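Continuing the batch. This is chain 6 of the set; chains 1 through 5 are on the previous pages. Same settings as before, nothing changed between runs. Recording input and output for traceability.
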Amino acid sequence: MKKAFDMPKIVVEQFVPNEYVAACGDENKVYKFKCDAVGGSWLTEAGTVYLETNGEAGFQRSDTELGLYSHCGETHEADTTDSFLKGYIVNYVPFGYKEVIVWRGPDGNNIHCTTNLNMETWETAKS
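Output for chain 6:
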């Protein structure tokens, strides 16, 4: 039996991307969240906001007080690089508290709180 020599062949396929990959990551990305946290009791919508600072679960008087708060009801756009802190909105008569995420606003002085504690579900957009 005689062997035949075949020339090597090069087969070239054209690259066609089938997925979108963002090259810029979280740059210029914002969270959209609603400032919806109402007071810690059924008597009032206002309350005092505290940051979780003592490392113990649940509100403790040793947590850091930020000040009085009443929800504005607006949907805010906050940079994903901003600080979002665990906190509580507290009422004293009758006593009650709710866990919230606190955003201090672009100047760091305002208090905005949401009861949506799962930030992975927050809507995002490019700013």
